[in-house]
Design a protein that fits this description.
Elements (H helix, E strand, L loop, with lengths): L6 E5 L4 H12 L3 E6 L9 E2 L16 E4 L9 H22 L3 E4 L12 H4 L1
Parallel strand pairs: 1-2, 1-4, 2-3, 4-5
Length: about 120
Amino acid sequence: MSAEAKLCAVTGANGFVGSCLVRRLQAEGWRVIPWVRRPATETKAVPFCLGQEVDPSLFKDVHALVHCAYDFAPLRWDDIVAVNVIGSQRLIEAAQKAGVERIVAISSLSAFSGCRSLYGRA
């Protein structure tokens, strides 16, 4: 990577997959901005909760977005859709509006046609 390393936003950066991804991206020379629910005060993380509006200006200078956040708190289908499905759509639309070059959404092995779990269906 060049001296001017590209910037990647990672949602769910405090989770297992997200934290592994952050370390890997940094090892490959990327600058990473973690998007997390409760950022530590000493970090430059972006406070982010799925389901909320996303300001496209939060993606200033971001070249890539990796979305691996999921909120397990909602238990009713309508709430799961509002938070996780529509929330993910809002996030991706804001990134597109801001001109983010690459967007990756990480899913789960639980997501398949005919899945019975609400998590997999979402």
